[in-house]
Specification:
Helix content is 86%, strand content 0%. With 228 residues, the protein is mainly α.
Length: 228
């Protein structure tokens, strides 16, 4: 359980750091885009070689695919509801969007600890949490929220996501291979949907086609970490 707390704290620390930065500064658009692109590449690698591959090995391709589809559908429908909030409650809509894929990601990170832990997934989650929290906190600041309010909200989100790692390790540790296959596939589907719907379009919007190089760099780093 100590390892789960450590992994959860490291992954969620990026939310607090990103929120602290966004509450005070606005990064140049090309830097923000590069960070998002890097995170996208890292997540693509992690969900391919950690989440979905582990799901397929544990329960077969059909159970893994079932989880993948359910995860993607859950993100798409939940994100559609969040979109309706974006107007009068845009800041909270963005915060909700971050947690939609964050909870299954961190649950999967906790499940990975059953077999020693996925450092590639940890790196990918950290790399994605920072720019997502930074962008959302910047929007909150632009909406007139105080720095204290922003930090309280994002520390709360960080605690929730860190707890998800502990829950994934503690409550799901004894689950059957088939159940784990669906859960890991679900996490992969949610992550993949968030990449297609939010992360990569946002990166391209602010960075243009050259953001592809940052995406390649993120994929490569995550792959090298996975080899260790």
């Amino acid at each position: 359980m100590t390892q789960a707390l450590l992994f959860g704290s490291v992954a969620s620390a990026a939310l607090v750091l990103g929120a602290a930065a966004g509450a005070r500064w606005s990064l140049p658009e090309h830097v923000y885009a590069a960070m998002l692109g890097f995170a996208g590449g890292a997540l693509i690698c992690a969900l391919s070689f950690e989440l979905f591959q582990d799901a397929e090995r544990g329960g077969g391709v059909w159970l893994a695919a079932l989880g993948l589809g359910l995860g993607a559908a859950t993100f798409v429908f939940a994100d559609a509801r969040v979109e309706r909030m974006r107007g009068s409650a845009v800041s909270f809509g963005l915060l909700a969007a971050v947690t939609l894929d964050g909870v299954p990601e961190n649950l999967a990170l906790g499940v990975s600890l059953i077999e020693g832990g996925s450092y590639a997934l940890l790196v990918a989650i950290f790399a994605s949490n920072f720019p997502e929290a930074l962008g959302s906190a910047t929007k909150m600041r632009d909406d007139g929220r105080s720095g204290r309010f922003i930090m309280v909200v994002w520390v709360g989100a960080a605690v929730l996501l860190a707890a998800s790692v502990v829950v994934g390790r503690g409550l799901l540790g004894g689950a059957s291979p088939g159940v784990l296959a669906v859960l890991l596939g679900f996490a992969g589907g949610a992550v993949l949907a968030s990449l297609a719907d939010t992360v990569m379009p946002e990166a391209f919007k602010h960075g243009g086609p050259y953001v592809a190089f940052a995406t390649v760099a993120g994929f490569l780093l995550s792959y090298v970490v996975a080899l260790e």
